[in-house]
């Protein structure tokens, strides 16, 4: 199959005499002046952008999960750990490392993209090959500004390679930044090949149009959002998956479950829904995953429950070895627990019960307990922690009154249920995993077609066409077996909830809430864990204080509300 491989330049260093240190001769083969010459040089530099992005938001650091944590999607499930977003004022202090992480990581991508764009015209790359390379770099520049503008608001807009010290940055407006994103993405969409003509994982015309639609929505360019999303949806090479497929299609499950099984995310596996898929190759240099260390995207570690190895005296912790072995749940720590809104409320039918007709909340995709205290009731998913007719404290709190990380509803897409790499299994009889478990051993969707439909529905709603908005929403719901929504019921709240139902932990929810202006209101309403500590100015991050202090040539203004 075709896959995008990440290749690195390695700069060798040689031993030297002490006096040689004073010489200005380059110590390696490659320098900034001779490594941006041929097309292969630029392809290697572009591959580094993929690596930068994967490391930033799909690495093992807890900062990778800041876009899901402390929103209406999830909470940290643990008091007293500031780096897990359990305290908004402390987490978003202007001097906090978390604030600097996203700033510097995204500007690193922008700097590398600017170097590629700026050096292409004078290179030996044929003129006819330059637009595609530039389009790819401009896609990543827009992608990085997407994070910056939704996390921080208006930020310095840097569009050229920085070749000397600079300390006079000023902030552009949020609209100026987004309009630059739109310009970059329109160029990318015009010059990148379509997805069937590219290796798995490489950004395409469709990825650019998907991000263009989202960016246009952010500044009210709704017709542009409709046009861009329609370009993606109308491509005959793309379609929602509606039939069982892939590596485990003959096992119990459903098509939504199939989307997230190992090796099922790319076109080479028959998947026509993935648009931009982050590539991982276990135990391959540069592959981003290891089965001999906890290396890689740790959504399993963060989202799945911290399964107890035995039941407690009250027999309440029944997600335990013998009920759901760790090879099913994964090696979870339970730091990214669902809000009650995400796990329960958005799934209620007109009678106030969870609508299990929707496969996205089925036993295969969003399990919520085991049968042990209701023999006369439904055969699955009844229990003290998860009874939908009890107060949410029944699953958020354990017997001591503290947050429980050992038992809660979770999305199986975070893990590879029953399909972990064999050398992670400690006990073949109980299927208990080794301590190094916790990595999600799949490729991971950054964009997929179901979201494109929901972006277009949002754009149709914005222009007042709820009929077409409902058509797009129902296309997604129909695949899931969910009841159709009437056009009269479509509003932004419904679309935001539908994004939770369809995307769940895939979604970088903080960006969506920021883009739609619903961050503060939704967290206050749906996240009881963070409702009391979030303040209105926390809807954007502070500008890192270290960046303000170093910018002595101009004023880099702080966001209101931060000291």
UniProtKB/TrEMBL annotation:
Keywords: Cell outer membrane, Membrane, Signal. The keyword Transit peptide does not apply. Residues 84-213 form the SusD-like N-terminal domain. Belongs to the SusD family. Residues 434-562 form the RagB/SusD domain. SUPFAM superfamilies: TPR-like. Pfam families: SusD-like_3 (PF14322), SusD_RagB (PF07980). This is RagB/SusD family nutrient uptake outer membrane protein. Gene3D superfamilies: 1.25.40.390. The keyword Metal-binding does not apply. It is found in: Cell outer membrane. InterPro entries: SusD-like_N (IPR033985), SusD_RagB_dom (IPR012944), TPR-like_helical_dom_sf (IPR011990).
